[in-house]
Amino acid sequence: MPMTAAILEYKTNRCGLADLIIERLDAARDDLRAQFVASEPDIGYFYIDDVLPAEVASAIYAAFPAPETMTLKNSLRERKLIAAQMNRYNPILEEAIYAFQDERIVTALRGICGMISAYPDENLYAGGISMMTEGHFLNPHIDNSHDKDRDRWRVLNLLYYVSPDWALANGGNLELWPNGLEATAITIESKFNRLVVMATHGRSLHSVSPIRVDRARCCVSNYYFSDEPLRDEDEFHVTSFRGRPEQPMRDTLLRADAAARGMVRKLFPKGVRENPHVYKRDEPQ
């Protein structure tokens, strides 16, 4: 039966979305915990499908902005479109992002992943929305270890995919490299209405395979942070990229790039410039 406008409006605000998400997580909690525990010795992760009603997930996808209104990151490391200044876009996108920051969901994910503490990031540091189209990619990398102020450790990466009828052959899929680039990656399809939750620590090497089709792979992203690192051996590090196995020259260049940026951060722990990838709530639309 079609949803009325009132019901759809409720299901597309952050409270209504969070109600639906927590219901889905609670129903699958044992399976999700088992997924995470089995993978935790390497890169802990789990994924869950049908997170929201299909018509709600489709509404989120339909609200994604035109590519020219987003920021293109284009280098040897990556090629993708991102946005964190959410007051510039359809309100449903901001509602979807912050639904995953609802305290009930944070508590549920902390329990599933066996964490002492976990905090959502209202600043959307490196979070928000992303779009990848034909030829876009994200090379293997380890995420920056901390939040924008270097006060808390980055511990979870939440990726919610909303592109309808997305197929594995399209590319744009999450790749995990728990045994390094010499081994075969674990591929997690960027399937419509799928949430992937991945642990982030010093060994969480991951990538996104190149997009092979003239379509957009759209994702709603969040990071959680913690008072303590996931692993005792973790140390502060910048985002560090590598070349794919078939890119030895790029790998050499990206290793040098990561080493140089790491040295700069040792000299300037807070960085030499403010990272622009945050949500500035006082910025006009």
Structure notes:
The protein is of the alpha+beta class. The protein has a single domain, classed as q2cbj1_9rhob like domain (Jelly Rolls). Helix content is 28%, strand content 22%. It contains 7 helices and 13 strands. Strands 1, 2, 3, 4, 5, 6, 7, 8, 9, 10, 11, 12 and 13 form a 13-stranded antiparallel sheet that branches. Strand 2 and strand 3 form a beta hairpin. Helix 2 packs parallel to helix 5. The chain is globular. The N and C termini lie far apart (37 Å). The model has no long low-confidence stretch (mean pLDDT 93).
Summary keywords:
alpha+beta
The CATH class label is Mainly Beta
> Which range best describes the helical content: under 10%, 10-25%, 25-40%, 40-55%, 55-70% or over 70%?
25-40%
What is the overall pLDDT average?
Answer: 93
Percent strand equals: 15-25%
* CATH topological fold name: Jelly Rolls
> Which parts are unreliable, with pLDDT below 50 for 5 consecutive residues or more?
none
Please give the CATH architecture: Sandwich
**Helix and strand element order:** HHHEHEEHHEEEEEEEEEEH
Total DSSP helices? 7
Name the shape in a single word.
Answer: globular
User: How many structural domains can be distinguished in the coordinates?
Assistant: 1
Q: What's the N-to-C terminus distance?
A: 37 Å
- Tally the beta strands: 13
Biggest sheet, in brief? Answer: 13 strands, antiparallel
Task: Kindly provide the radius of gyration, computed on alpha-carbon positions and rounded to a whole number of angstroms.
Answer: 18 Å
Write the CATH homologous superfamily: q2cbj1_9rhob like domain
